[in-house]
Amino acid sequence: VKAKDCKNVLANMGVTVTEKEEAKLLKTLPVSRKKIHASKLPVLMENLENELEKDDYKDLISYLPMDENEMVDLNAVMEEAKTFTGEKVDTDHLSHELRKMGLVLTDEEHKELLASLSAYSGGKIYKKRLLKRVKNLKGPQVKIKKVESLLESMGVRMKDEEYEELMAQLSANGDRTVGLNDLMDAVSYIK
User: Fold this and answer.
1) Domain extents for the chain?
2) What single-letter DSSP state applies at residue 51?
3) 52, 133, 177, 181: most buried by Cβ count inside 10 Å?
4) How far is CA 15 from CA 45, 85, 99, in A?
5) pLDDT tens-digit series, residues 134-179
6) CATH assignment of 3-81?
7) Which residues pair with 88 in a beta bridge?
8) d(CA 1, CA 66)
């Protein structure tokens, strides 16, 4: 992101800043060719009014590609930062939270998900982060009756006609579920 485009990039993420805040941000960010040093991420997140807790920061760092100089791509940071917003869910009651969202995981997928959440020891995780982790699994299922609420949780907004087209394209198995990957493929086709 070019320094002169910083305000527009933030606006596209839903973050509005005044001219004074933009000037302060540009002075405090050690940006070099669209990269920022990993040690400055807390300052960046604070300036974006998104102060991360320790577990969130560990999670963010683990997902960002870092070069040998501990520099990370600013666009990757901005994209990951979007998932640190909204509602949080309790990691101690993960099975319950997944059922509420209509997600069905095998025992193996559930273990894999728990392992990926090790940074969140007995706490809470943003629902968008959790859903991102679930999407990385191979084979999770979604209950057909929960498709609409799951998509809303993921920030996917659809018109009624689009939703009807989506439901017509999805083929449920005997458990009245559909594969999450199949669902996301159908959504990207329609949108």
Assistant:
1) 3-81, 88-190
2) P
3) 177
4) 12, 12, 32
5) 988 888 999 999 999 888 888 788 899 999 899 888 876 777 888 8
6) 1.10.238
7) 126
8) 17
Give the residue from 53, 55, 42, 66 showing the smallest Cα distance to 117: 55
- In the numeric block, which tokens belong to residue 140? 């999770």
Two structure tokens written together for 80: 């990951």
Rounded distance between C-alpha atoms, residue 137 and residue 128, angstroms: 15
Rounded Cα gap, residues 139 and 60, in angstroms: 24
CA dihedral 155, 161, 164, 165 (to 10 degrees): -90
Q: How many CB atoms lie within 10 A of CB 77?
A: 20
How much of the chain is in helix, strand and coil states, percent to nearest 5? 55, 10, 30
**Residue in the block written with tokens 């520099």:** 71
* Secondary structure of residue 153 in the 3-state scheme: helix
Task: Give the C-alpha distances (Å, rounded to integers) separating 120 from 61, 64, 123, 149.
Answer: 13, 17, 6, 25
pLDDT at 112 over 80: yes
Longest dimension (CA), the chain: 58
Burial 92-103, CB ≥16 within 10 A → b, else e: eebeebbeebbb
pTM exceeding the 0.90 threshold for the entire prediction = no
Look up residue 108 and give its amino acid. Answer: E
Phi, psi at residue 120, to the nearest 5°? -100, 75
